[in-house]
Specification:
The protein has 135 residues and is an alpha+beta fold. It has a domain of 89 residues: Sandwich (Immunoglobulin-like). The strands form 2 sheets. It has a 4-stranded antiparallel sheet with strand order 1-3-6-5, with no helix packed on it. Strands 2-8-7-4 form a 4-stranded mixed sheet, with no helix packed on it. A hairpin with a 2-residue loop joins strand 5 and strand 6.
C-alpha cells in the first residue's frame, strides 16, 4: 500500500513540475509578434517568426535565441528586419510535434507549437484492357 502511495506522489510531482515548466514559455504576445509558423509544416519548410516592430538585424544570432524541442539542426537568420527564420539543415522528423522557444532582443521569451507533415504516396495504375480475343 505504501508503494502505491509513493508512486502516486512521484507521478503527481512529475505532472506538476511538467505543467509548471510549460508556464515558463508563454504564447507569443500579439503586441510584439505578428505571426508564427503553425499548424502543419513541410519537413524542409523554414520556421518563421514575424515581429510587429523592426529588430536589430546587425548583431549576430546565437543558439539560445531559437530552440526546438525535440532538437533539430539548422540555420537561424533574419529574412528582413521583421522576420526571424529557422531553416532546417536536414528534413525534420515526419509527423513530429515540435515546440519552438524564442528569446530575441527585449521581447519576453515565448513559445509556439507546430507539427510536420507525414509523407504521402500516390499510386496510379493504368487500366487493364482485355479485348475480345482475350489479349
Amino acid at each position: 500500500m505504501k508503494t502505491k502511495y509513493a508512486i502516486t506522489l512521484i507521478l503527481a510531482g512529475v505532472l506538476i513540475l511538467s505543467c509548471a515548466r510549460q508556464a515558463d514559455f508563454p504564447a507569443p504576445d500579439s503586441r510584439f509578434v505578428a505571426a508564427v509558423s503553425g499548424g502543419v509544416l513541410g519537413r524542409n519548410e523554414p520556421v518563421k517568426v514575424m515581429f510587429t516592430q523592426s529588430q536589430d538585424t546587425s548583431r549576430p544570432l546565437n543558439a539560445r535565441e531559437f530552440t526546438l524541442s525535440p532538437a533539430a539542426k539548422g540555420v537561424l537568420s533574419w529574412q528582413n528586419e521583421y522576420t526571424l527564420v529557422f531553416t532546417p539543415s536536414e528534413p525534420l522528423r515526419a509527423g513530429q510535434h515540435y515546440r519552438a522557444m524564442v528569446n530575441v532582443g527585449s521581447i519576453a521569451p515565448f513559445s509556439f507549437d507546430f507539427m510536420t507533415s507525414l509523407p504521402s504516396l500516390a499510386v496510379t495504375m493504368d487500366p487493364v484492357i482485355i479485348d475480345a480475343n482475350g489479349e
